[in-house]
Amino acid sequence: MIIYNTLTKTKEKFEPINPPNVSMYVCGPTVYDLFHIGNARSFIMADIIRKYLIYKGYNVKYIMNITDIDDKIIKKSNEEKVDSKLIAEKFADAFLQDTKLLNIAKADLFPRATEHIDEIIGMIDSLIKKGFAYNIEGNVFYDVNKFDGYGKLSGKKIDELIAGSRIEVNDQKKNPLDFTLWKKAKEGEPAWDSPWGKGRPGWHIECSAMSTKHLGETIDIHAGGNDLIFPHHENEIAQSEAATSHQFVKYWIHFGFLNIQNEKMSKSLGNFFTAREILKKYSAEAIRLLFSQTHYAGPLNFSEDLLESAKKGLEKINNLVEHVQEKIDKKTKGNHVDFDFDKYYFGFENSMDDDFNSPQAVAIIFDFVRSVNSVIAKNDNIDIKFYEDVKLFLEKTAQNVLGIVKLDSESKQIGDSKENELVELLISLRTDAKKNKNYELADLIRNKLAEIGFQLVDTKSGTSFKKK
Ligand code: AMP
Ligand code: ZN
């Protein structure tokens, strides 16, 4: 499998650090409003990548942060005279509801910034101690000149970056590119105690701290929209690598923008539709088909006409699905037909193995539907086994990876259970037990988990698990 890595600007063979485990972190929403269909494109493409890795047999630990403290949340809270916590809670709930409606599987964990203040403070503290950050009257800034690799992700030198970006003016900073790690609270703003006084974390440090806490110092995949390459992801690298002295991320994946009339869909430009609005008129499957028909990295010009054609295209798959289900329900016995399912599985895998070429994978699925239809048209009395195999193919590819069809099936969807969270909880209890030299308890937890099919793997950056 190959993936285009923004860091190296080449397509690279995918070799996870600790196979079959894959750690994946995706930058999630800032919860001050409903998300738009442009944000949805990034969330859906990340979901497809995760699901394809699972299809390939990887054990993926998938984390998406929720930014629940931020200037925009505070602004909304002031405008509406509602506590910022309530604003964040309301829109985090809305985010979870709407992503579910879009067939996006729940992350294994949705860490929130306000629940990781200790870890954030710890990381800022170590950056100051190592000389990468400075405190000016309660505002702590990252000193970009101290980090040699600054600019390596966006491929720019520090002076080019200064010239090319709109940067917040602030007399306290040594360099205009220095960014806030800890922001001093103004009167009445939500604030936490810290060694530098009351304040709140900057946006970038939240992802570095939460990623390290939940996935270890080096992770396999980190993803987000193109707009996050600079400064967000560039800053995450600077923070994490300075703090841990290890490579932060092996593969950086970035999603192209959803545009409207060739302009990025965004809140600030006002050219957006919320996902919730679109879901009133179109199914999640139609939206996902439309997105799958463009490669994740390229731009996609959004229009309702395109959604209409996606909707029409889906009818072809759904008509077949209905017919197949009817035959399965009737348990018809009949003649065997030769059909080369492997050809379509290979086709699907070859496409997705090539940097998640979903447009080609979709074409294979439509090709499959056409061939199956022609087999059905030519044969009167086909055995149920054929229909079951057709259904299985669509289930594994169109449903479980792309999410463009919903079959009447019992296959367990990922992310629906609390299972991973419970295993993580037991792992953290075992880690504590080991720290306290209670090896008996640590072994007991390991053995009991093994008995029910979870094998623990201890590595330098912590313990992960494999399902047997
Ligand atoms: P935000 O809540 O603005 O931080 O965005 C959440 C995610 O959506 C990030 O990964 C962004 O990069 C992504 N995003 C924002 N606007 C678009 C867009 N027009 N097209 C695709 N992704 C976007
Ligand atoms: Zn982030």
Structure explained in plain terms:
The chain is built from 15 helices and 15 strands. It has helices spanning 37-55, 71-80, 84-101, 117-129, 158-164, 203-215, 229-244, 275-281, 284-292, 304-330, 341-353, 358-378, 384-402, 419-435, 439-451, and strands spanning 2-5, 10-13, 21-26, 59-64, 133-136, 139-142, 179-184, 199-201, 219-225, 249-255, 258-260, 263-264, 300-301, 454-459, 462-467. The chain has a 4-stranded parallel β-sheet with strand order 4-3-9-10, sandwiched between helices. Helix 10 packs antiparallel against helix 13 and helix 11 packs antiparallel against helix 12. The longest helix has 27 residues, at 304-330. The protein is globular. The protein binds adenosine monophosphate (AMP) and zinc ion. Adenosine monophosphate is lined by residues 27, 29-30, 38-39, 41-42, 224-225, 227-228, 255, 257-258, 264-266.
Quick recap:
With 468 residues, the protein is of the alpha/beta class.
Number of DSSP-assigned strands: 15
- End-to-end gap: 23 Å
Question: Strands of the largest sheet, in order across it?
Answer: 4-3-9-10
Average pLDDT reading: 94
Helical/strand content category: alpha/beta
- The helix count comes to 15
Mind describing the biggest β-sheet? 4 strands, parallel
Helical content class: 40-55%
Assign an overall shape: globular
Would you identify the regions where 5 or more consecutive residues have pLDDT less than 50?
none
Radius of gyration: 24 Å
What attributes characterize this protein structure?
468 residues; alpha/beta; 4-stranded parallel β-sheet; 4-stranded antiparallel β-sheet; 15 helices; 47% helix; globular; binds adenosine monophosphate; binds zinc ion
